[in-house]
Amino acid sequence: MKRTMTLLLLAVVLTAVSCMSPIALAAEVCYPTAVEQSEDGGEIRKVYDLSPEQDPAGIPRSDFEQDGVHYTLTDLLKQEMPEYQERQHTEEVSLESKNKDMASILALLPQEKEFVTEDGLSGTLTLQLDTVQVETAGYGTSSRKVTTTRRYPNLGSQDTQYIPKTVDENGRTMTLQDVSWQTDNTGDLDGYAIGDRYTAVATYSGTATSSYVTGYTVTAKYVGTVSKIALDRVRYVAVFEGTEIKPVIPIPEPIDPVIVPDKTVSNGGFQFNWAYVLVPLGAVVLAGGGVGAALFLKKRHEAGEENA
Question: Are 31 and 50 in contact, with CB atoms under 8 Å apart?
Fold first, then answer.
């Protein structure tokens, strides 16, 4: 049972691998930006400049032949290629201030400040004094109670009907709040001093509303140089060592040797091989034997017919 389950799992894995697209499995092929060859042709270096996101697996590593030399990859070198970037940058800042005098504003603005841009460049920026501007941020209102006094002399009685119930004071309406009386003249009535003329002292109150500045907005510009060292490229160098391809000389097929007696005659440096005589002679003997056998059989056959 265990073996059966293992075989089933193996089949599933093999099926999944076979269904995967070769394009998805293979890395994107990289192409060299430069090819360098040694003077003797024994080494070739292929240079690839890739971005940090590119996969170096796409660099070809297979052997190849060129100009009668077979090249094989022996090393793949990696070198990071830093790039220095620099530019002028202007940054505008905005802040709030409760006061608008320059001393208070400059206390909020440092002469220099470190800054980092959105794309990663950094540097020291300097305040440009001629760019400092101050504007009113907004207004608020406040109210307070105010009073005023009015006098109404030479009144015949202490009757408030002669007193105005409202008055205008600096553009605002004031309402009567209190009245006090003063006697301006007295008369004698049966030995009693009785007032016959009065002055009314009327007190009025109202609300005074005023506006004020809630604050100020300060804007200024900082200018300076920002820079960074970016690793935008990675250089790979594929080193191939070469071996000269030697031509292959074909070897002729061996001929089956003729077995002959190991007897030779040497005379004056000349060797005579008996095989050249014995081989043809043997052929003649065999042929003669065959012919003789045929004649013998023929005569025997004829003799048998005669006896019959």
Answer: no
Note the pLDDT tens digit of each residue in 262-302.
Answer: 544 444 444 545 555 455 555 545 555 555 555 555 566 56
Backbone dihedral angles phi then psi of residue 121, each to the nearest 5 degrees: -80, 140
Q: How far apart are the first and last CA of the chain?
A: 89
CA 76 – CA 55 distance, rounded (Å):
14
How many whole angstroms separate alpha carbon 109 and alpha carbon 93?
9
The DSSP letter of residue 248 is P
Separation between Cα atoms, residue 83 and residue 261, nearest integer Å: 87
* Strand extents, DSSP E, the chain: 34-37, 43-50, 64-66, 69-97, 112-116, 122-155, 166-169, 172-189, 192-244, 264-267, 270-273
Provide the whole-model pTM. 0.43
Backbone angles phi, psi at 37, to 5 degrees: -125, 135
Pairing mode of beta strands 264-267, 34-37? unpaired
Q: Which residues pair with 220 in a beta bridge?
A: 93
Query: 248 burial class (0-12, 13-18, 19+ CB within 10 angstroms)?
Result: exposed
How far is residue 80 from each of residues 59, 63, 246, measured CA to CA in Å? 16, 26, 39
